[in-house]
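Box 3.1 A note on notation
Throughout this textbook, protein chains are presented in two layers. The first layer is the amino acid sequence; the second is a token string describing backbone geometry. Keep the layers aligned when reading.
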Amino acid sequence: IFQWVNQNESYWFFALNNGDIIQIGKGIHGAKAVNVIPSYSDGSVRAIKGKFTMSFDVLPAESAEGLSGENNDIFNVKVVYTAVTKASNSLSLPILSKEGKEGVLLLTVDGSKLDESFVKGTSGASACLQIVWNDNIMSSGYFPLHYYDPYNGHEYVDLGLSVKWATCNVGATKPEEYGDYFAWGETVPKSDYNWSTYKWANGDPNKLTKYCTYSPHWDSSEPIDNKTVLDPEDDAATVNWGGSWRMPTFDEWIELQFNCTWTWTTQNGVKGRLVTGSNGNSIFLPAAGIWLGNNHTMESYGYYWSANTTGGYYGGFVKFNSAEINTSNTNRSQGQSVRPVCE
């Protein structure tokens, strides 16, 4: 069929009997095609104004790992806006990291400069991955982007820590408002906080039905679950605020305690702690007290749940007043405040 076959780094050359020569690109690391893996059923990919990851199928699959080892400068993730009249109607997203595994190329990009018109929904956006080497271009083709707000309209403060902290409690609209109170692992406020009303026990602290690591406290026909961190469906921040909000872990409270300055103060008539990070930013934690049974008490203190159990029938929490700040544990049935965090 062919008079001869030859190759170089980028192409195969096939000489036909009629003298014509066919040139076929090899693809870098043998890759022949890249196709986006959508985040949603409409074919769109989730994007945020920050760091996010796109996934691409690579053919053949074994090429994905080799591609991930290439320099960033051969990759271009181009975004084109619709209904944007200004000159800057396109953008290349900086690539932060790459990973190739099981035939999938994962590209983590920086979307911090995505146009506000896209963020606010007044324009659409499409993106395309181009891989350019030598004189070759391999493209995923354009796919729609779908803006996702991980904060779901709630405000946060960056204190220079591992997570961002919300500006107010769940159930509040201002930093100084107390907000709602929750038993540990419950997502709905109530009027009576005791073991007889607690969701994850059969009326007694020694009869837990979820989040238990100590068999004498287990009271279910199911095997003991050994769970120590809240599932999303039992996280008051996740359920009530949505997005990527969650309750802080015990370690994140400790990080806040020892890496920030806690100042006892009054804000709009409410006492509490102004927590200031090393970068100068701050949040206000009101001393909102605690619910024990059907009594709201101890309003000179702030009590805030963590997402962790701390052994037995206890949940981890932080407690503070004008004189002290402590991370400790207490009965999960109590009604305490929740201050959400987000990555």
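The mean pLDDT is 92. The CA atoms of residues 61 and 103 lie 4 Å apart.
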